[in-house]
Automatic annotation (TrEMBL):
Matches recorded under Gene3D superfamilies: MFS general substrate transporter like domains (1.20.1250.20)
Polar residues compositional bias, start-end: 92-107
Subcellular location: Membrane
Keyword Membrane: yes
Organism, scientific name: Gnomoniopsis smithogilvyi
InterPro entries: MFS (IPR011701), MFS_trans_sf (IPR036259)
UniProt keyword annotation of GTP-binding present: no
Segments passing through the bilayer: 151-173, 217-234, 246-267, 279-298, 338-358, 408-425, 445-471, 483-501, 507-528, 540-560, 572-596
GO function terms (MF aspect): transmembrane transporter activity
The protein, known as: MFS transporter
Amino acid sequence: MLMLAVSQDQDPGCCSQAAAYIYVEQYYQAKPRHGTFHLQTPEHVGSSGARKNPRTMAGLIPAGLGSAFLSSSEKTEDDIPLTDQRRRDSDTAQQQRQQHSRPSMPSTYRDDDDERAGGDTEATPFITSPASPDEEIDHEDDPRARLRWPVILYSFTIVFLVEIALNICWPAWNAMLEKGICAEMVPDLAGFLIAGDDLDPRCKEADVQGRLAMYRGWSYTIDALPTIVLAVPFGSLSDKWGRKPVGILAIVGLFLVTVSYEVVFYFPLPMWTFIWSSMWYVVGGGAPVGVSMMYTMLADVVHVEEMASVLFRFQTVFLLGELVSNPLGGFLLSKGPWVPLITGNVIMVIALALLQLVPETIEVRRWHDARAGKRPEESRGLEKGGILAGFHEQMQRIREFLVTNKRAAVLILPFCFMQLGKYIQELLAQYATKRFGWSWSKASYFLTLKSASFIVTLTFILPALSTFCLARLRMSSLSKDLWLSRWSGLALIIADIVITFSFTPALYTTGLVLLAGGCGLGPLIRGLLNALVEPHHVGILNTVVGILETAGIMVASPIFSWSFQQGMELGGAWIGLPFAAGTLITCGATVIVWAYRIPVEVERGILEEDHIA
């Protein structure tokens, strides 16, 4: 099934993140650096009273775990002009770390701000304005002043609408698919799908539920294929055609997928044919490419010093959309399966119409290129052979990165485990309908608790813990990330165990709330990874992670659907089999994080930077 949310608990969120990583990396490699962009996780954004470490948070925009935010209020050491004292500190640290130090910026480097100020002094702010003289000269011609608010408002509204449209549809899709499979496997229920009667108890039998899990698993796998193949090509096309045309194509493809589902259910066609509805994602690349276009349009028009706060609110839109749509979808489904489906289609059309009104932001990119003195043919447009050449170059860079960054490669392994375990959360609704005999609408209501818990954790709990570790425990920013990730992993293990043995609705509800304790594991590990690689490798790091996340969905979905099928056939406590498997996988990721030790030279460098800051 398909969903747009990039929060940790939803599968296409991972695909969205992967596509956004791949494309936004291309974007910022080409964009003139009048300030450097860095990724912040919610715990960093919310931390107050503590100096944030730019290297720990460096990265690119994702689509999802819903938990990364772009900031330029801080620069990497390569972007900060060195004062005399800082240069002496840097030279001392360089001698201590000889073989392991990152490349430092030559002392002759002069920032635009230094030229205006006439040089550095000890009173010079460590973080200076990213504006350049050219920006002041060209201020009247800056298209961002004209496009900023329309793009922000339209983007927020469109994402909120699409999030609601898809999330109110998915319980109905599951219910209709379950009915269709039941009608196929129980011959005397022919015509049951169209009649829309109350669900027959025979539809909760193990063979029906097992086939439902299998179909959904393979659907997730096929959903991921267009994302992997088309994310980079459509990203390149957006540099030639513009962001809006590619975004429109993505939403059109998404709409075609939803309509094709409903065509299968209405006639009805053989239920297995709904799996191939995902092939409509070839039109625009689907939700992942659409989300990446929204991120890119925001990056086009928002000044770097404001990007963190804007994208924090943008990420909140996804979570709020999920929070609203779960109970709304359950309520509409109680009125009949076609009520939420038709409502979702109408909302999707409204979102598509609003997208037509969004101003094109490619002119901002061209304005940057013109100010940087680039000729049009030098810009990263779709050149002859550009797609194949770009793909080959990307694969070559990935190979080189993994060979030269072995420490980071070790820490990337938990992402493989986490992505395999994340898919299990997609089985939560079906698990509840089978174990407790709930309707799909009631199961949807209960998932609202998980969404609300995620929002509270990402917005309040993690930022508070981050501040406590930095201000009270005097941890370095890197040690703080490592310890929080360790405890997040343990919280996720406990949640999986509780859900596995949730023989009562009360235990199930407790497990849903506890899942929020582990929602920061992904962003925290990403922060650690960003600290271990050189600044110019941050982009390729996030590309590797994005590819692993998307590939993880392809592998995990059929495997865990099969385990759910086997658990239902065995019956009893075995129904929780996929969650038990998820517990083991989460244990693997957590063991790696607990066993990992921060290299001494890296920790020393981080402490020096925190002290200077």
